């Protein structure tokens, strides 16, 4: 069976020539008996290993492996992969005209294969790479020890990758926002069925995960093996200044947020006393949306300092997990910052233009009451759009509606002086708590100000729905049918003559009065829906402010490489005959010649739409075609 090996090399390794007598560290990912992935994390000189200070290499590898993510530890262990030499004939006793296989047999002990000081137990795999100026990238695989066998002939795919760095870039196989699949035809082509029968490609999750952990593995290894680099970094002046500055900033922000939350909690506890308990209960019922967004803001203020802490070792060791954790930390404070900025802009605008806003609100309330509600009710009491309605019923419904409108308008005359202070309250809430809290307060004020419209709509809906239900029941009586509520079906039923007579006497006036009731129902439904639509638009804006990932947008504008979505290979070199030995070339047929392929690991990046779409999809997840159909059916049947 022909064996295949993929070697994942850091870009720095392929661009450096002076790496003689070095050791390779990384992971062996064995997918099958014939497929092996070798992920090289870093390379170090043997002299650096000899200055270890007496500590065992096996212990250092074990402690470094403990710092890796748990998923990677279960699938592959961080270990010593092999060695890298600048020449092949390390042993002077080797023949002059020896082949690669002969050179390995003569120099297997001197080249370092399976014999490294400080390594107690060796792995079942070992790779030996050499410098070859004639090959692509100047590096060639000499041989592999594969489960006790020395393998010279295998297909080699060398993949050069740029080591991921936190804040710069990383690799990811997951598509954060895959586009929805198109609807497949009823009959699939034959080639589609053949494609599904093929064996799936080798999973690369472990390989990509190990690549994302390569930089942290090198740092952890060097910190454990020697303290020189750590000490020089720790006592550098720039490192101390930057660390102290970030610590002071974090302490200041945490203290301000704690003080802010303490003031909020103090006023909340003050309102819970028996003297002010009725105020708290009434405000929770009237200002329901304001309380919801106020609670969201309080939770953000309370918990976002906790999100800033980096206590998870997995996020530190894996660049991909660290990027996701950083986005989660930054999303909270960025949402609060944008909300407060918008709130201050709106609040300051309202404070400087309170008089103009107050005049506009009074004018709009007057126009809405006189030109829409009162004029509409008077128009419905006559002949609306040429329809002849029942004069008595239209007069009763119109007079009741006019009286309710007049009573509510009279009450608002006494409350008009408070509108000026309500505008100031909206401005202060926007400056203090953000635009979402002030917008929610506006929704509650609009809901309370249009309470008479809601009451009239509820009353006419009650009359209209009962009238529709009575007509539907009488229509079933004429058809000899009866509704079975237990089984939710229509059953046959024999009605008496008296029941038919009474049904006829009731059906006729209800049917003739239905147009009058329907006209009033349509008018108040349109009015109430218009008011609710304004509130829904404001609530939609609040949801957009909460759902927009501001941190991700800002980071995407600066560095798109931090949002990968899949990888691809850029092929640099492809060659079938990679053997230098003439005897090996004569013993192999052209079909079985080993293949060498050199490629670069590239990454795709998310667009701004792909970043925003998952957040907005979650926001609109409750809206569907069935919910819209149910709402339309409820409006037609008189159900609120």
TrEMBL record:
What are the record keywords, sorted? Membrane, Transmembrane, Transmembrane helix
What parts of the sequence cross the membrane? 237-260, 266-287, 333-352, 393-414, 421-443, 455-478, 499-524, 536-558
GO biological process, alphabetically ordered: GPI anchor biosynthetic process
Give the matching InterPro entries. PigQ/GPI1 (IPR007720)
Supply one GO CC term from the record: membrane
Q: Which PANTHER family match?
A: N-ACETYLGLUCOSAMINYL TRANSFERASE COMPONENT FAMILY PROTEIN / GPI1 FAMILY PROTEIN, N-ACETYLGLUCOSAMINYL TRANSFERASE COMPONENT FAMILY PROTEIN _ GPI1 FAMILY PROTEIN
Protein's name according to its UniProt entry: Uncharacterized protein
Q: Which organism is this protein's natural source?
A: Brassica carinata
């Amino acid at each position: 069976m022909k064996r295949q090996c993929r070697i994942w090399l850091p870009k720095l390794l392929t661009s450096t020539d002076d790496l003689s007598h070095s050791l390779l560290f990384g992971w062996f990912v064995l997918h099958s008996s014939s497929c092996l992935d070798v992920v090289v994390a870093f390379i170090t000189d043997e002299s650096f290993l000899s200055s270890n200070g007496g500590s065992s290499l096996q212990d250092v590898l074990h402690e470094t492996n403990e710092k890796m993510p748990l998923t990677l530890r279960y699938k592959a262990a961080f270990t010593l992969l092999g060695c890298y030499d600048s020449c092949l004939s390390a042993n002077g006793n080797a023949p002059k005209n020896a082949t690669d296989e002969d050179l390995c047999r003569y120099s297997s002990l001197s080249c370092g294969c399976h014999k490294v000081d400080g390594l107690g137990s060796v792995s079942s795999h070992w790779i030996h790479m050499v410098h070859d100026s004639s090959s692509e990238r100047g590096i060639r695989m000499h041989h592999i020890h594969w489960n006790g066998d020395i393998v010279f002939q295998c297909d080699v795919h060398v993949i050069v990758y740029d080591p991921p760095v936190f804040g710069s870039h990383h690799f990811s196989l997951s598509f954060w926002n895959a586009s929805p699949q198109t609807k497949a035809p009823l009959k699939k082509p034959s080639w589609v069925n053949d494609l599904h029968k093929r064996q799936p490609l080798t999973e690369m999750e472990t390989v990509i995960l190990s690549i994302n952990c390569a930089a942290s593995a090198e740092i952890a290894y060097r910190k454990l093996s020697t303290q020189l680099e750590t000490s020089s970094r720790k006592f550098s002046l720039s490192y101390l200044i930057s660390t102290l500055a970030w610590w002071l900033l974090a302490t200041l922000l945490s203290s301000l947020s704690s003080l802010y939350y303490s003031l909020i909690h103090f006023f909340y506890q003050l309102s819970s006393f028996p003297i002010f308990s009725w105020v708290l209960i009434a405000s929770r019922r009237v200002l329901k949306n304001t309380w919801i967004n106020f609670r969201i803001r309080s939770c953000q203020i309370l918990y976002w300092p906790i999100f800033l802490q980096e206590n998870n070792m997995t996020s530190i060791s894996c660049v991909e997990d660290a990027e996701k954790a950083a986005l989660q930390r930054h999303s909270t404070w960025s949402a609060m910052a944008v909300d407060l900025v918008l709130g201050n802009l709106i609040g300051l605008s309202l404070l400087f233009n309170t008089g103009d806003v107050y005049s506009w609100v009074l004018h709009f309330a007057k126009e809405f009451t006189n030109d829409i509600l009162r004029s509409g009710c008077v128009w419905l009491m006559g002949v609306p759009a040429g329809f002849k309605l029942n004069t008595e019923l239209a007069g009763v419904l119109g007079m009741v509606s006019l009286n309710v409108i007049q009573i509510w308008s009279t009450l608002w005359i006494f409350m008009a002086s408070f509108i000026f202070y309500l505008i100031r309250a909206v401005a202060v809430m926007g400056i203090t708590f953000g635009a979402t809290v002030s917008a929610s307060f506006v929704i509650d004020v609009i809901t309370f100000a249009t309470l008479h419209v809601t009451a009239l709509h509820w009353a006419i809906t009650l009359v209209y729905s009962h009238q529709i239900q009575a007509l539907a029941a009488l229509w079933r009586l004429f058809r000899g049918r009866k509704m079975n509520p237990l089984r939710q079906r229509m059953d046959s039923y024999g009605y008496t003559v008296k029941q038919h007579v009474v049904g006829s006497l009731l059906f006729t006036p209800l049917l003739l009065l239905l147009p009058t009731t329907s006209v009033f129902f349509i008018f108040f439904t349109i009015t109430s829906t218009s008011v609710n639509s304004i509130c829904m638009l404001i609530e939609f804006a609040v949801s957009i402010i909460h759902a927009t990932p501001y941190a991700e947008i800002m980071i995407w504008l600066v560095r798109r490489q931090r949002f990968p979505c899949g990888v691809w290979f850029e092929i640099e070199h492809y060659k079938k005959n990679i053997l230098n030995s003439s005897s090996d070339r004569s013993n192999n047929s052209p079909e079985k010649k080993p293949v060498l392929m050199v490629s670069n690991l590239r990454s795709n990046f998310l667009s701004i739409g792909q970043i925003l779409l998952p957040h907005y999809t979650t926001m609109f997840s409750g809206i569907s075609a069935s919910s819209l159909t149910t709402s339309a059916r409820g409006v037609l049947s008189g159900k609120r």
